[in-house]
Write a structure and sequence with these properties.
The protein is an alpha/beta fold. It has helices at 2-24, 31-34, 64-78, 94-107, 146-155, 183-194, 197-205, 232-243, 251-268, 316-320, 323-339, 356-366, 431-448, 451-462; strands at 43-49, 86-90, 113-119, 122-124, 130-132, 144-145, 160-166, 208-213, 248-250, 276-279, 291-293, 302-311, 342-344, 349-351, 371-383, 391-405, 408-411, 415-424. The longest helix has 23 residues, at 2-24. The chain is elongated, with a radius of gyration of 28 Å.
Length: 463
């Protein structure tokens, strides 16, 4: 009896130790799951830009080649892409494009990340068939069908693949369903997830094949000089990659940013197009995520910050009560600059009306910057003899760019935002009331002004 009791005690003790060992991983019975290594392969890319078409059916494009050349630079400068891992195809014929896919299939390894970008003409017919159009294509048998593109993509061994198509009717490539939650609301949700390492790790361990289209099954804009020589879609794509300050930027975040900015700008121009982002069909996608992994944090390509300065107002009342209004304009201009790949100083600078140009030069030297924007806000209370409104609060805003080149400071032409007026029922002599009204008229201004025009002004002078 004593021997039996003794053995049972040791048996129970051993069992207890075994449970602790399993929980702590001492016996390594589940080591494969617990220590699954995240192996990052090479970043690879095929970038295709077609401008010069031989067939009269297809007009030449202006921006596609510049789009892929600048995109290639951004990928190398900030996202760890080696020049030898980028296949750059300018004015590509059918054999060039298919040859690029074949070369990539031979080079790629199982853990690689693969980006494919196409800028050029696209076609779509009543049978819901879509194609890329090579530069030498005469008839539809010279085109490359979406199904052939997806088949070629499936052969490539890379773990994470992202296909970006900036062409008419490119939405036909994206045929697997996804959530309808889109735009900046989706971005905010995803951004919170991206800073959690476990989330990024999990998405990297799962295979992914995703697509971003510049529009749905619709024509898309070629853009031009006012977009820095890019298509509207490529302009926003490149700007977001330049300005990104996150270590990990997912394809989903990038795509949803493009949905908002491209659709807003093209709608304002009367040529609406709405990008889309979703997984691709029949690609063995496991719900993973393609990430642009930034290699150099701390500033976009143009790392020299822009100084935002505000000119003292001639309206003493506005000058006294404009703190909230100035804050609104400052935040809006910071966002506009960041969307275009620029950093800014963290706080606004204030310039008096006495020799403002001289002061701008001095402030730029103090803050050691080479670029600055001087913003002038004029507010006027216009009496309005009506039964309903006592007055109109008018706001006029001007922007002037300054850039230091050597020992000289060059100034751009003055850019004027469209005047906005806000009716007011009363105008009591109360500080809080006036502050709120000035803030309200500024909010009206920034919801009505053309982001496209402001961005074009910034680009034309600083880029």
């Amino acid at each position: 009896m004593e021997t039996k009791t003794y053995n049972n005690k040791w048996f129970r003790l051993f069992g207890f130790i075994l449970v602790l060992g399993l929980a702590a991983g001492t016996f390594n019975l589940s080591a494969e799951t617990a220590t699954d290594e995240l192996v990052l392969g090479e970043n690879r890319a095929i970038l295709i830009g077609n401008n010069n078409y031989q067939s009269k059916k297809w007009p030449n494009l202006k921006t596609a080649i510049r789009d892929i050349e600048v995109l290639s630079d951004v990928l190398q400068l900030h996202y760890g892409y080696k020049p030898e891992n980028i296949i750059l195809l300018r004015d590509a014929a059918r054999k060039d494009i298919l040859g690029g896919f074949s070369r990539m299939a031979a080079l790629s390894e199982a853990n690689d990340n693969l980006l494919i970008y196409y800028g050029g003409h696209g076609e779509f017919d009543e049978n819901s068939l879509g194609w890329w159009v090579p530069v030498r294509a005469e008839e539809d048998f010279d085109y490359i069908s979406n199904e052939e593109i997806l088949t070629r993509l499936r052969i490539i061994k890379a773990k994470h693949k992202l296909l970006i198509s900036d062409s008419c009717f490119s939405g036909n490539l994206l045929t697997r369903s996804r959530s309808e939650l889109r735009g900046l609301k989706k971005v905010k949700k995803l951004r919170k997830q991206e800073i959690i390492s476990d989330y990024v790790r999990e998405k990297m361990l799962l295979n992914s094949t995703q697509g971003i289209s510049s529009g749905g099954n619709e024509p898309v804009s070629d853009g031009g000089p006012q977009w820095g020589g890019h298509s509207i879609f490529a302009y926003h794509l490149i700007a977001q990659l330049k300005a990104n300050q996150k270590k990990y930027m997912s394809a989903d975040v990038l795509g949803n940013l493009l949905i908002d900015y491209v659709s807003a700008d093209t709608t304002s121009l009367g040529i609406p197009q709405t990008p889309d982002v979703r997984p691709l069909k029949n690609q063995r996608d496991q719900g993973g995520e393609f990430f642009f992994i930034r290699q150099s944090l701390g500033g976009p390509i143009d790392s020299d910050p822009v100084m935002l300065a505000f000119l003292e107002s001639s309206n003493e009342d506005f000058q006294t009560h404009n703190k909230k209004a100035i804050g609104v304009v400052f935040d809006e201009m910071v966002e506009a600059l960041q969307r275009n790949g620029f950093r800014t100083l963290s706080k606004p600078v204030f310039i008096s009306r006495d020799q403002p140009r001289k002061q701008m030069r001095q402030k730029m030297e103090v803050f050691k910057v080479h670029k600055g924007l001087l913003i002038s806000i004029d507010v006027e209370l216009i009496p309005n003899q009506t039964l309903t409104w006592k007055a109109l609060l008018s706001i006029k805003t001007r922007i002037q760019a300054f850039e230091k080149k050597g020992n000289e400071v060059v100034t751009g032409s003055i850019f004027r935002l469209k005047e906005q007026k806000l009716p007011v029922r009363e105008w009591p002599d109360r500080s809080e009331f006036k502050s709120l009204k000035y803030e309200a008229v500024v909010n009206k201004l920034i919801t009505r002004y053309s982001k496209t025009d402001v961005a074009a002004y910034i680009r034309s002078f600083f880029m």
